[in-house]
Task: inverse folding
């Protein structure tokens, strides 16, 4: 086989793989959206769910999903980016650094159900909080922290060394170089990692079953006191997320419109993740242009 024939075969294989991946994605989206969009309405998005009566909505579950995502990213992003900075810029090669990197890789490979059982032990039983938003957010932080650390480390390492050396040669301190030169250059890749981690948080169900719970108290959205049991901002209340609600409705649902609620919830989940990713990338591009003074 000559080189041109091998090149054509390789190109065909890679195009075929790309076509298969796109086809699976389009088919999955088509199935979810076609079956779910017809069940979405303003009432579906703004009314609470019901365990026995039909016609319930997903208001509380949708809010819980975004709220847990916000709390999780508030904890995970600073820790993850800070860990990536340490591993890339401060950690010295040796057994200790290799051990830390191995621990990060092991954490990244743990199944979500294991993280959920760990969260049940640590953040539900040991702390005495019971099922809570904070417990779910901490469990998801453990779940996503290794991903953000590795992505941040790799992004920082890909920044050309000439940029760092030029900054240090001007007498700028190491930390100031990291803050003003390295991080802005690595920001797009770090943002991609954060978006991927956010998508995992929004669609996670197994870890939240054991930490955030399967129920949501009746919430008063006019009550902004974070210490009130009926306040949506209370981080110590149980909170059923949208992904958990889909699982619960399909496995334990007693309502007559199980299929409609499940299909509509799935479509809302997919659309929410898509909108979140697009907004995050748009905001990230604005921030990147601002901190790098590019157009």
Result:
């Amino acid at each position: 086989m000559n080189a041109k024939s091998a090149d054509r075969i390789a190109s065909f294989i890679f195009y075929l793989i790309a076509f298969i991946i796109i086809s699976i994605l389009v088919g999955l989206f088509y199935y979810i959206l076609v079956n779910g969009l017809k069940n979405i309405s303003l009432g579906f998005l703004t009314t609470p769910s019901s365990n026995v009566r039909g016609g319930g909505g997903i208001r509380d579950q949708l809010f819980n999903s975004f709220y847990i995502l916000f709390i999780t990213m508030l904890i995970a992003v600073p820790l993850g980016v800070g860990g990536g900075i340490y591993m890339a810029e401060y950690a010295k090669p040796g057994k200790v650094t290799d051990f830390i990197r191995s621990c990060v890789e092991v954490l990244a490979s743990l199944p979500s159900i294991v993280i959920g059982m760990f969260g049940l032990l640590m953040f539900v039983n040991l702390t005495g909080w019971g099922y809570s938003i904070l417990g779910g957010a901490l469990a998801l932080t453990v779940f996503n922290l290794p991903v953000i650390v590795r992505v941040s480390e790799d992004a920082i390492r890909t920044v050309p060394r000439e940029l760092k050396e030029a900054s240090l040669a001007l007498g700028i301190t190491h930390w100031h170089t990291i803050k003003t030169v390295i991080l802005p250059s690595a920001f797009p890749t770090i943002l991609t990692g954060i978006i991927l981690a956010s998508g995992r948080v929004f669609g996670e169900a197994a870890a939240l079953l054991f930490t955030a719970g399967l129920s949501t108290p009746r919430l008063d959205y006019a009550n902004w006191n974070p210490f009130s049991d009926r306040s949506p901002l209370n981080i110590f209340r149980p909170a059923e997320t949208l992904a958990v609600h889909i699982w619960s409705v399909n496995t334990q649902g007693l309502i007559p419109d199980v299929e409609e609620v499940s299909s509509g919830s799935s479509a809302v989940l997919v659309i929410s993740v898509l909108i979140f990713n697009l907004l995050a990338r748009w905001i990230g591009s604005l921030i990147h242009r601002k901190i790098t003074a590019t157009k």
